[in-house]
Design goal:
- α1 packs parallel to α2 and α1 packs parallel to α4.
- This protein is α/β, with parallel strands linked by helices.
- The chain contains 4 helices and 11 strands; from the N terminus they run βαβββαββββαβββα.
Length: 186
């Protein structure tokens, strides 16, 4: 069983996976390769003069994998509650995890089918988002949402930051105390 399953490998999901894997939590990312960042050219991502969306996503996933995150390239078709967490089914298999972070960008249809509350989106062309609290919790205990699907701006710097924020909140809950990750120069 994984500690955390993240659906979506864009900036929000990749950032969340980086934090959870670096913290030593068994992390899996499930991605269907439908993210809008893969069509982007970025000139406004802090700390980077310019980068293509595909390069940004690839680098983020490589960072998360470096710390032990696993990537499954598949579309999640169902999420169901289990005694110890959740079962996520995809085309050719299934995984179980204690917590789920939805980082599905503009796609909300799967999670709506399992009873997550939604609300209208405020970004242009974003019709529906998950109704989350300030920490990223949905109305289903153990399911969190980050990034555009959680109602934050579609800009990659913002969705990446939201993914990190939600991951820190999940880690804090898993650890039973506030999680902080600070590396220092040596």
């Amino acid at each position: 069983m994984y500690d955390v399953a993240i659906i979506g490998a864009g900036p929000a999901g990749g950032s969340a996976a980086l934090f959870t894997a670096k913290a030593g939590k068994k992390t899996v990312i499930l991605d269907s390769d439908q993210g809008i960042t893969k069509r982007a050219m970025l000139y406004n991502h802090y700390g980077v003069k310019e980068i293509t969306g595909p390069e940004l996503v690839k680098t983020g996933i490589e960072q998360a994998k470096h710390y032990g995150a696993e990537l499954i390239e598949a579309k999640v078709t169902n999420i169901s509650k289990t005694e110890n967490g959740f079962k996520l089914q995809y085309e050719n298999g299934e995984v179980e995890a204690k917590h789920v972070i939805l980082a599905t960008g503009v796609l909300t249809d799967l999670a709506e089918s399992i009873g997550l509350k939604t609300k209208p989106g405020t970004e242009p062309r974003i019709k529906t988002v998950f109704d989350v609290d300030a920490d990223g919790r949905t109305n289903v205990e153990g399911i969190w949402a980050a990034g555009t699907c959680a109602g934050v701006s579609v800009h990659t710097i913002i969705t990446a930051g939201d993914g990190a924020k939600v991951a820190i909140n999940v880690l804090s809950e898993l650890n039973g105390e506030r999680y902080v990750d600070h590396d220092v120069l040596k």
